[in-house]
Amino acid sequence: MTDWGARAADHLEALAGFSAPGPGVTRMPYGPEHRAAVGYLTGMMEGAGLAVHLDAAATLVGRAEGGGAGTFYMGSHQDSVPEGGAFDGIAGVVLPVLAMQMLSEEGVQLPFAVEVLGFADEEGVRFPTALVGSRAVAGTVDMAVLDMEDRDGVSLRAALEGFGCDPAGIPSIARTGNRALGYLEAHIEQGPVLEAEGEALGVVTGICGIERHTLRFVGETGHAGTVPMAARKDALVGAARVITEVDRLARATPGIRATVGQVDVRPGAVNAVPGEVRLPVELRSEDDAARDEAGAEIQAFARRVADEMGLELEARRTYAQPAAPCDPALRGALVQAVQAGGGRGLELTSGATHDASAMADLCPISMLFIRCRGGVSHRPDENASPADLGAAVHAIAETLRRLADA
Ligand code: HGY
Ligand code: MN
Ligand code: MN
To answer: What CA–CA distance (Å, rounded) separates 132 from 135?
Structure first.
């Protein structure tokens, strides 16, 4: 009897080694760590009988032909946040490959094709946008994002070309032509609910919406000892007022979660008045209208601060993804598959966003959550047990069997 959980844990441990130095896993898209992960996953996918290629958006595609028309998609992202964990995203590429291997060993011939997708960049940490791979599959990529640059001034276009991909091929990735039957993403919960409920697996009802803004304050740098306080145009003081307002507004608005997770200060010297500050503001909510309104309020507040302090301000909303409900029929199949494995079939919402949010523009979506220790994620101590990983492989395989019989 194959221990699919142990196999999953071994693959994820090996993949965690494809990381930049430092605590946890740091695997940015289109770099050497991504290249190594692609090599490893290619071997895994081919071992499961999938035909593998890397598409123009650097998504690794593993395909198994089916008996009839249409394709069912599964997958998640290979990238991590800096000093993140070994499960976020990448588990959702490994687990469906193992489920396909299980079905292949059982001699199951599905009546539809299956593609397992390993997306390059879901986190949107390196570039001020995200979901490029899944949006490409859904046919919704705005090609203008190719001109966005990372903190080293490398454009997304140059990063893709450096990875051996031709961005001009991105529009032809869209699966809108052939019948997309649905999408299933397995992902760690990144929250405390399943652990508190004593459940290994959960089925997602819907994914929150998200938007990100980039604010750039420009003041005047100068000597910290000689520029009089009254004469200062301190860009960091302006940014600090916005950060405080972001937190106040989110606490005062039900259902809004807002975060400033990064601040770039120039010249960034202890004895120089900050002349330029760039910060991303991120907002999430299940209510798209409330999130949209909060985003507009924050930009207006930043504008008032800039005017009062004599600072220049550039404010752009660089990314937005609406809230996405999961498909009732796919949810039902997943709940039954979880219950067939002894679980309750608990259903819950997702406060994290996922590639499934973008795939919702192509086809019905579904997500399978896996319990994670302490509910923590985006940290080196992120963890899912081999037993829970194994339960997920079985639930994915059982869901495919049920869809085949539907
Ligand atoms: O930020 C998120 O919700 C996801 O992990 N990218
Ligand atoms: Mn993720
Ligand atoms: Mn993440």
So the answer is: 5
